[in-house]
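Annex B, item 7. Sequence and structure tokens for protein A, then protein B.
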Amino acid sequence: MGVPLRDQVAIVTGAAGGLGSAVAARLADDGATVVPVDLPATDVTDPDAVAALVAETVGRLGRIDILVNNAGIAGPTAPVVDYPVDAWRAVLEVNLGGVFLCTRACLPHMLERGYGRVVNVSSIAGKDGNAFMSAYSASKAAVIAFTKSVAKEVATSGVLVNCVVPAAIDAGLTDAAPPEERTLFLSRIPMGRLGRADELAELVAWLASPRCSFSTGATFDLTGGRGTY
């Protein structure tokens, strides 16, 4: 298969977690120079921190070809009537605001060169809506809509913007879920197992590469059959 991402520069947010680290490693295997982003070094909800990250990356490496917006938080599990307002705002700020800020900062450099790949990590919760996870579900639905909107804006520019929609993956936020929630997640997947981080990384790697050339504004389900319901 060679090294399809040779000489390309990729920013991966949430890179310290199980999913982000798998994505970063997969892109590096394909030849990319990966800039891993996570707390405390860079807060994706801080416009100044994001701008500084992008400026430093371009100054040091000369370009940004790929942005993977993976950073996210689950927030509390609670009914809407009891959902803390501060927690609602925090989930939306990270899961949606971070995607907006990072895309907004990276896009001009991609447009200037006439090439780029933006891959946003959403969730099946953004399509189905998980009970007692209203903020998370709403934020991930918004990421899907944001993906479609930006993709249409830049459709003729050489920059493709797509979205990955996984069900529960046996890494990342799922690791922090209590056992009863993990059991519930598993019960919803027709294949009878959780997804693997390397499976998510493989899909992201394709979307982040020149091999993906005629898909933009699309949502790619990685759900073990749940997305077919």
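Protein B:
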Amino acid sequence: MLVNLITKSKMPIIVLETNIKSSLEICFDLARSIDLHKISTEKTNEEAIEGTTKGLINLNEFVTWQATHFGVKQKLTSKITEFDRPYHFRDEQTKGAFKSIVHDHYFKKTENYVVMKDIFDFQSPFGIFGRVFNKLILIRYLTNLLIDRNNIIKDFAESGKGELLLK
């Protein structure tokens, strides 16, 4: 897995690339599966409580997640604002603790595998204090959440469990 961190105008961007031996369609659908998201975020007790709460999320649909991060129960609502199956979709925070989150998911077929690329662009609240928190804790924490999630997508796609989940 390739992990990069880009910083532009005080906003960190996490870029991950994961190679998966599966089809574009399976990888794309697993990445937008509410059910797989719940499985991949068991550590933070994420639950979909409003909007699309199971199955596959689509363009202009939203989901509100309730989770516990850093010992604090919080809610985050995101909406699918761009959608080009099976190559790209974008989810954007509409409500939540962050000042902003834009998460692009790209999928590209190569000869031997699918490259799943995440570009996670976020801005914390609280000005300079938020930027310090990003550097000390949050960037590593979010990167690890995304890596764990992508490893579960990879496992489900390559093992065939994903096809069963998507039925």
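Comment on protein B: The chain has a mean pLDDT of 93.
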